[in-house]
Design a protein that fits this description.
The protein is of the alpha/beta class. The protein has three domains: 20-261, 3-Layer(aba) Sandwich (Rossmann fold); 282-398, Up-down Bundle (Four Helix Bundle (Hemerythrin (Met), subunit A)); 405-456, no CATH class. The chain has 16 helices and 15 strands. It has a four-stranded parallel β-sheet with strand order 4-3-9-10, sandwiched between helices. Strands 5-6-7-8 form a four-stranded antiparallel β-sheet. Strand 11 (260-262) and strand 12 (265-266) form a beta hairpin. Helix 2 (73-82) packs across helix 3 (86-103), helix 6 (205-217) packs across helix 7 and helix 15 runs antiparallel to helix 16 (428-440). The radius of gyration is 26 Å and the shape is elongated.
C-alpha cells in the first residue's frame, strides 16, 4: 500500500509523492522557549517523529527540521519578570525542551534552526516581498499586504471578509488594510533588536519559519506539520510570505494534529488546565506518555487523563511481558512490508489500528511454538521501533521506578533473597509477609522454575 496522508490544504487524504523521487523534506513548528512545555505541545512532536520514522523506512533521503523560536514577546516578558537576559532564559528552556522530548523517545531532528541565527535571511525575504509589491514599510514597521495575494486564506478556508468579521480590535493606523500582518516591528532601547533597512527592530513570528525553511530545506518542501491551532494565522501567513517571496508553491502536504483536551476543553497555558511534561515524567515513564499520545488518531482530539495513562502503562506491560517471556529467543530481522501493521501506519498514520496489531503480534508470540517465536518477536520489535516504543530491555522496563514508588531495585532484590532464605528455613509466614509487603509497595513477584522475577505495577 502506498503511503497516504491527509492534506489540510486539499481537505482529503492523498497518496504521498515527494517533489523529488526518494527525497523528502519535512518541517515542523517547534516551541517558543519561555517556559517548560505541556503535554499538548508534545503531541505534534510525537506524531511527526512517528511519521519521520516511517518516512526513513520508505525513502533513503529524508531531512526533518524542527525550529526553536528564541525571540518573541512572551520570551521578552518572561526574561523581564525573571530579571535575566533573554538569551539565557531561552537557552535554558530550549535545553529543557530537548530533554523532555528525548524522554518521550523522540529522535532528534536532522536540523534544529534557531530564529535568532537567521536574521539576514529574514531581512532578505522582507526586501523581496517589498520589491514584488507584497509588503510595505510604515512607521518603523513592515507589513505584508494580504490583499496582494489572490488566494490568501485558502489553507485555512477563510475569506478576507470572514477573517475580519466580528474582530473588535483597534486597527493600527499604519496599516493599509486591517488584516495586514507584521513582518518587522521596531524595538525600544530596552528590548532586543537588530539593525535593518527599516531601523532597529525584530522580526514577526510568522516570518521566522518562512526564512528558516527557505535556507535549510528550499523554496518548496514536501511536508509542513504542526498543531491544528497553527493553521491560522501562523501557517496561512507562512504560506503567504513564502509563496509571494519565492514565486512558487511552498508546501505540498500540510498536516495538522488535533488538540489535547482536559475535561473537554483544549489544553492551554491561557486556560490554566495544562499538564507539564516534566511533572508527568515524575509520575509515569516517558514511553507511557508517548503511547498515550499515539492511542488516538493524530487528527482526532485526545482527552488526556490519568485513566488514559494507566491504560497505556497496562498495554505496555502486556507488550513487554511477551518480550520478557521470550528473552532467550533471538529475534529474526523482519520486513513488515505488506503487513496489517504497515497498512495501518501508511493509512494516514492510523496509530490506534497499528497498536491493535501490536497486541495481536504479542498474543501470537505468547502462544507460538518455538519455531515461530523468532519471526514474531522480530516483527513485534520492528513494529515497536516504528512507533518509538518497546526498545528497552524488558527486565529494565518492569523494574524501573514509577510515580509514587519508594522502593529501589536493590531493596527489592534484598527482600527477594530474604524470602528465598525464609522458604529454605521453612519460615513460610515470613516468606508470605515479604510477598505481601512488596505487593503493597507496587511490586509483583512471579515464581518459576528459573527463579523469582519481579515487576512494578
Amino acid at each position: 500500500m502506498a503511503l497516504q496522508l491527509y492534506n489540510t490544504f486539499s481537505g482529503k487524504k492523498e497518496v504521498f509523492k515527494p517533489l523529488v523521487d526518494d527525497r523528502v523534506r519535512m518541517y515542523v513548528c517547534g516551541p517558543t522557549v519561555y517556559n517548560r512545555v505541556h503535554i499538548g505541545n508534545a503531541r505534534p512532536v510525537v506524531v511527526f517523529d512517528t511519521l519521520y520514522r516511517l518516512l526513513k523506512k520508505n525513502f533513503s533521503d529524508v531531512v526533518y527540521a524542527r525550529n526553536i523560536t528564541d525571540i518573541d514577546d512572551k520570551i521578552m516578558k518572561a526574561a523581564r519578570d525573571n530579571g535575566e537576559e533573554i538569551g539565557v532564559l531561552s537557552a535554558r528552556f530550549a535545553e529543557a525542551y530537548s530533554e523532555d522530548m528525548a524522554a518521550l523517545n523522540n529522535l532528534e531532528p536532522d536540523i534544529i534552526p534557531y530564529a535568532t541565527q537567521h536574521l539576514p535571511e529574514m531581512i532578505a525575504m522582507i526586501e523581496r516581498l517589498i520589491e514584488k509589491g507584497h509588503a510595505y514599510a510604515a512607521e518603523g514597521h513592515v507589513l505584508f499586504a494580504v490583499e496582494s495575494m489572490d488566494d490568501y486564506g485558502k489553507l485555512s478556508k477563510r475569506s478576507l471578509d470572514d477573517m475580519l468579521a466580528g474582530a473588535r480590535v483597534e486597527v493600527a493606523p499604519y496599516k493599509k488594510y486591517a488584516g495586514d500582518f507584521v513582518l518587522w516591528k521596531p524595538s525600544s532601547e530596552d528590548e532586543p533588536g537588530w539593525g535593518s533597512p527599516w531601523g532597529r527592530g525584530r522580526p514577526g513570528w510568522h516570518l521566522e519559519c518562512s526564512a528558516m525553511i527557505k535556507k535549510h530545506l528550499g523554496d518548496t518542501i514536501d511536508i509542513h506539520g504542526g498543531g491544528r491551532d497553527l493553521t491560522f494565522p501562523h501557517h496561512e501567513n507562512e504560506r503567504a510570505q513564502s509563496c509571494c517571496a519565492n514565486g512558487q508553491d511552498f508546501v505540498r502536504y500540510w498536516m495538522h494534529n488535533g488538540y489535547v483536551n482536559i475535561n473537554g476543553e483544549k489544553m492551554s497555558k491561557s486556560l490554566g488546565n495544562f499538564r507539564m511534561v516534566k511533572d508527568l515524567l515524575g509520575q509515569y515513564p516517558g514511553e507511557v506518555l508517548r503511547f498515550a499520545l499515539l492511542s488516538a488518531h493524530y487528527r482526532s482530539e485526545l482527552n488526556f487523563s490519568a485513566d488514559l495513562l494507566d491504560q497505556a502503562q497496562r498495554s505496555l506491560d502486556s507488550l513487554y511481558g511477551a518480550l520478557r517471556e521470550t528473552e532467550q529467543v533471538e529475534a529474526d530481522e523482519v520486513d513488515l512490508g505488506g503487513s496489517a501493521f504497515m497498512a495501518a501506519l501508511e493509512d494516514d498514520l492510523n496509530t490506534p489500528i497499528a497498536i491493535s496489531e501490536l497486541h495481536q503480534l504479542a498474543k501470537e508470540l505468547n502462544k507460538a511454538a518455538a519455531g515461530d517465536q523468532p519471526r514474531l518477536k522480530g516483527a513485534l520489535l520492528e513494529a515497536g521501533k516504528l512507533l518509538g516504543i518497546l526498545q528497552q530491555d524488558p527486565e529494565a522496563w518492569f523494574q524501573q521506578v514509577r510515580g509514587g514508588e519508594d522502593i529501589s531495585a536493590d531493596e527489592i532484590e534484598q527482600l527477594i533473597a530474604e524470602r528465598q532464605q525464609s522458604k529454605l528455613d521453612k519460615n513460610y509466614a515470613r516468606a508470605d509477609e515479604i510477598r505481601e509487603e512488596l505487593k503493597a509497595r507496587g511490586v509483583v513477584l512471579e515464581d518459576s522454575r528459573e527463579g523469582t522475577k519481579w515487576r512494578r505495577e
